[in-house]
Each structure stands twice: as C-alpha cells, then as structure tokens.
Amino acid sequence: MLSDVDEVLRKLLIREIDIQGNEVDIQFDQPKREWSSRLSKPTINLFLFDLRENLRLRGAEQYRTITRPDGMAEIRRNPVRMDLRYLMTAWVKEAEDEHLLLASALTGLLRNPFLPEDLLTPRLQNQPTPIPLDVATFPPEPGPMDKFSEIWGVLDNELRPGILVTVTVAIDPYSPMVYPRVRSLETRFVQDSAIQQPAAPVVTRAPSKTYHSVGGRIKSEKYTPSSLSMVLVETHSAVEISEDGGYTLHKVMDGEYHLDILFNQKVLKRQKIVVPSPSYDIQI
C-alpha cells in the first residue's frame, strides 16, 4: 500500500511539473546528510515520516452488515482511515533554483485535492472514497510536524524549506464474519416464583405475551428500494426500508399481519405474513 502511494505521487509530480526525461529526480529516501551529498541533479524528496489513524474520519458505527442473496449475513468492520504524512523538499545547488522547483511541485499538488483516478495502481482502485491529498496544511493534533528543527536534527542535515503532504488511504486488514441471517427474534417475559417473599403465598404465573422482531427483504427487478414505502396495516404504522430492501418489524406477537408496499403513495401489493415464519421476503 505505501509503495503504491509513492508511485502515484511520483507520476503526479512528473505530470504536473512536466518533467522531461531524467532532468529531475523524485526520491523517497531519508534526506540525511550522507544522502544529500551524493545528489548529482535537481531532486524532489518525499520523506514519509509519520503514519497514524485519522480519528476524525472514524465513524460511530464500527461495523456494517451486508445481506447476501444466499440468506447469510456478512458482518464487516469498517476500514481504518490512515494519514500518510510526507515532508516534501527540493534539492538544488542554487537557492533560487531550489525555490523555483519547490514552488512548481507545490503548485502541481495543490491542483489535485484527490489522487487522480487514472494514476491509481490496482491496489488503490478499490478505495471506498476518493483519496484525499492535503498540501501545506498542518494537522489539528500535535505530532512530529510541530517542530521542523527536531526532524532535521534527527536526520543530521541542514534545515531546508519543506511542505507537508498528507495522503489519507483506507486500509482493511479485517476478515468478514459470516452468519445465518436471523429471521425472527423472540422475547418472553415470565414471573419467577422463586423471587416471592417467604411470607407471601407462592403463586405460579403463566408466561406473559410473546413478542418477536422479524425481518425480511423486498425483492424487485422494476423498483428500487429507495422509491418504495411500507405500512403495517394492522397498526397503520410506517416500516423503514433500507437501501438493500431490508425491513424489520419490532414487537409483534404470533399471528397474521398485512404489509402494504407503496409506490408514489399507491399500493403496489398487500403481502400477508405469518409470525413466526422461516422467511419474510417479499417479491414484487
């Protein structure tokens, strides 16, 4: 993943600065004194010095459930959004030429708020969102960029003007968990005679009403789930339909129920369901 981001940044700089042939090098080494002493041509260096999770992009829901056509439910943990922080510097003998090269690199990257899709490697093409490219902005949390002088002290080299370049990529190291999809959830409430006071007569109570939470999926080749609405006829209450057509009825007892599926406020179908049942899927 890291080498893929390096390669995209290399191609992006070559295209934006219009580097011809080998007139300018683009390297990713640590800019130590020994390294800089061996340079023989103008060089742009992108030193990856910091990797950390972007906590601002971590959602409240860490898991998502995907319903598969085979009746199984796939539970996936959301990918981790990682900030890759580079220190971009230019290395030329004359200060004027150095500033010119650094300004060209800065201008070229600022033109791209995201890594261009046509430059992405195969491993970067499955990202859940476009890959942000932040240039010359400091992160809100404290970190190594607070003191440039300390970085150069560790690298044992002279202080040079540098630009912070941050690329935010999603990394998914987790394997999905697959389980049979729950069709009915039954909840019972009973009175336990064991909790009666010793002086009180022992009374055996029958179980109270049994409630279920049942779920199914609307299947249609003609209508998208977002264009449909659903009403439980017996209670005249709306039933929420998810993007994949899934729906859930809460706190229903054993018996027969009717669901109206509507399109543009017109009933397409009235579906009878029996609780409990092995399936509550509806075909339209």
UniProtKB/TrEMBL annotation:
Protein known as: Pvc16 N-terminal domain-containing protein
Species whose genome carries this gene: Ornatilinea apprima
InterPro entries: Pvc16_N (IPR025351)
Pfam families linked: Pvc16_N
Residue intervals of the Pvc16 N-terminal domain: 4-171
